[in-house]
Amino acid sequence: AVWDIAFSKDPQQQYLYMADGMNDIVRIVDRQTLQEITTFGDGGRQPGQFYGVHSIATDSKGNIYTTETWEGKRLQKFVFKGMAPVTKKNQGVVWPGTNATK
User: Fold this and answer.
1) What pLDDT score was predicted for residue 91?
2) Most buried residue, 7, 28, 50, 93, by most Cβ within 10 Å?
3) Residues 23, 74 contacting (CB under 8 angstroms)
4) pTM of the prediction?
5) How far apart (Å, rounded) are the C-alpha atoms in residues 48 and 36?
6) Which residues of the chain have pLDDT under 70?
7) Alpha-carbon distance 80 to 39, whole Å?
């Protein structure tokens, strides 16, 4: 279940970022078609994982911020590094040392 949404930083706000707290992922959706482009995250307490991802926001640089409820109780920042073609549906956990970043 999606608990919060944010918009991408581009002038058209082409993408929706959805905090899916029940599945511990962030969904990225094309705003025009509402088609899911990709997801990232997984359940857990390590960087890039979520324990009840509750809120999501973006800043003017395109960075994504998430906060968690339940026992997660933390804020994570995902740094915007540009746009690239999506090569897989689920990016998994996006932090150094995982297959998602290789």
Assistant:
1) 84
2) 50
3) no
4) 0.85
5) 19
6) 95-102
7) 15
